[in-house]
Design a protein that fits this description.
The complex is a heterodimer. Chain A is 36% helix and 21% strand. Chain A contains twelve helices and ten strands. Chain A is globular, with a radius of gyration of 19 Å. Chain A is an alpha/beta fold. In chain A, strands 3-2-4-5-1-6-10-9-7-8 form a ten-stranded mixed beta sheet, with helices on both faces. Chain A has two domains: 215 residues, Peroxisomal Thiolase, Chain A, domain 1 (3-Layer(aba) Sandwich), CATH 3.40.47; 114 residues, Peroxisomal Thiolase, Chain A, domain 1 (3-Layer(aba) Sandwich). In chain A, strand 9 and strand 10 form a beta hairpin. Chain B is an alpha/beta fold. Chain B folds into two domains: 232 residues, Thiolase/Chalcone synthase (Peroxisomal Thiolase, Chain A, domain 1), CATH 3.40.47; 149 residues, Peroxisomal Thiolase, Chain A, domain 1 (3-Layer(aba) Sandwich). Chain B has twelve helices and 16 strands. The longest helix of chain B has 17 residues. The two termini of chain B are 15 Å apart. Classes of the chains: A alpha/beta, B alpha/beta. Chains A and B meet through helix 3, helix 4, helix 5, strand 3 and helix 6 of A and helix 4, helix 5, strand 6, helix 6 and helix 7 of B.
Amino acid sequence: MRIFINGSACISPQPFFDCSKPLEGVSECVGDKLNCVEPDYTQLLDPRMLRRMSRIIKIGMASGLSAMSRANTSEIDAIITGTGFGCLEDTSSFLGKMIDASRAMNPTSFIQSTHNAIGSQIALHLRFNGYNNTIVHSGFAFESALDDALLLLKNGEAKNVLVGGIDELTQDLYTLLKRIQDIKERSNKINGRQASTIKYGEGCVYLVLSDTPNSDSVEIKEFNTFYKPDQKTLESALKSFSQENGIVMFGKNGDSSNDESYSWIESKYSNRNTFSFKNLCGEYPTAPAFGLWLSAALIKGIIPTSIIAAQNVNEVLIYNCFDNDYHSFIRLGKC
Amino acid sequence: MKVYVAGLGVVSGLGVGVKSNFDALISKNHGIRSLSNEIDPFLENFPIARLNLDDRALSKLVGVQTRMPRTALLSMLAASEALNNSGLSAQQYRSGFISATTVGGMDLTEQYFLSQHQGGKKLGIRNIRNHECGRATHLAAEYLKVNSYVSTINTACSSSANSIMLGARLIKDNRLDVVIAGGADALTAFTLNGFNTLLLLDNELNKPFDAQRKGLNLGEGSGYVVLVSERLVQSGQVKPIAVLSGYANTTDAYHQTALSPDGNGPYLSMSGALKVAQVNPNQVDYINLHGTATPNNDASEGAAIIRLFNEGIPSISSTKSFTGHTLGASGGIEAVYSILAINHGVILPNLRYSTPMTEVAITPNAEVEYKPVNHVLSNSFGFGGNCTSLLFSKIS
């Protein structure tokens, strides 16, 4: 069975949201804290609703609804959201007030702190009664969500699925991640590894996946996930990837210990055009959704292929490895 | 292709293990025996259902040396019971662990921030390393030695019903042979205060489906089922105890924290599960209710049941009158109870019921009742309108 991306939207540290005309290129990422370039939400969402929404819910709603309008569909059969950290701003806010002397916790923060608030708000807006799931498995949350979506499509339980990956980088999270990384750096140094050049990011991508293409579709030719595979299993997963002029996208993040997980595949494709997508969006649990969106945009010619020093891009393989245990391959191509 | 259940594991305010939980249920001994200010001294005293083991005792029981979130420990305890109960080894088959949680490592995160805020000894940052929901699952998956698939779901209070549903779909797709599916949630100050700010907590023992119900009591625990493929059963490698014959996930889409008065989402999830199973409403013997004892949930769920079953309403009860609302664990715990109802041929009682609700005319079973139970619906509905129903059936 063939599966197509019929519409998508991306809010990220790159100016990629409005792609009604071809995008000029990418922004240089300054510093190691990459926050989203956000659109003017008043063009997309009811201003009365906007006042009550947290930032991550605005980002999610705007992306989800835009993906649907770009796919030219109001009929979806499922909403599936992947998020590693969930709605952190409201979680921090509620937790902070609980711990400080004020005890002035706000119920709205609690309501908006739940991981499923993003998918639920989209469903509420659409008055949607179908399948709605939120997968929260850390750095594999998006791949798990995508897996759920493909399972529905393959078994004929859905014809159109809205599936996305979303995470936010709050100031609190950035501070904590830096502190955790500092400890890791010490052990990296002891083990003779290079200092990391990791950037912390955030973003949201929603896609409308369908069993039927439209005039603008990109095809998901292959999707495979592995948990704790042996090397042989991983290498045999590569065999089906055509050896011709495809691009290989890696989820390397600049942390030397993490990036060692990619050395086996880099050596396989040393003569190929490879690209690390986290240079553009930063590291966050659902960053592979950005990698997928970027790949589809390159295939469609929305983004100039000069950014990856290539000409025509017909096929992209995206490989991401999380925590050394979780591996995913996504192969996209023209349909 | 059928999906069978081959093992059960449960931890709740009723105790550790299937036997102690079942004994408490049929003896009408509830587990809502603690008070919320054991967890947060600033809270007024709400009844809660807590497992009577502190983190240290729980770690010892599980056999782990390092400090872990309580959710992970609860998860390991029930999931390993379920796997042992099935007699299977996770390494021998294509195995998966799909868990659910709403708080993950929030207990240690709270302690970390509290120690930063207060004077005195500061906790190390490693305490928040396991904050994310996925970490508790990951730690438990390693403990169980699962080899092929690990994931975590958080759709609030329907989370673990959804992990059981996803596990079944992966087996049907022939991706996995064995899936340990369910969920775990520890009680934390975060959730207690959250529900308190929403005015959803009862300061007395909860009264599901009763006219006098005022709100919910929170609880903690974990519940898992071991799902296995039909092929594994046919090959004689495992003895099944029930069939997961139907499931459906729907959205109520009415309000972020309330269900619609007519229970549209619950109606769709229950009818959807029956449709998948090709079972008629009149074949259902028992509904293990979501039954949180909030005015809104019980009226909405009751309305949906009347709409689906008309005159032929099956036996119904909310075992949250025993365990409190265990949030992300409730679907797993109640799946275990539903299967026990089938295997023991018993309708579990709904405690503290005395007066019919004014909104809908529906009466829960107040007593233990022995009778053949062939099909049980287990309902789980969450914030955001996430509704999931599972149908468990006797092996024919």
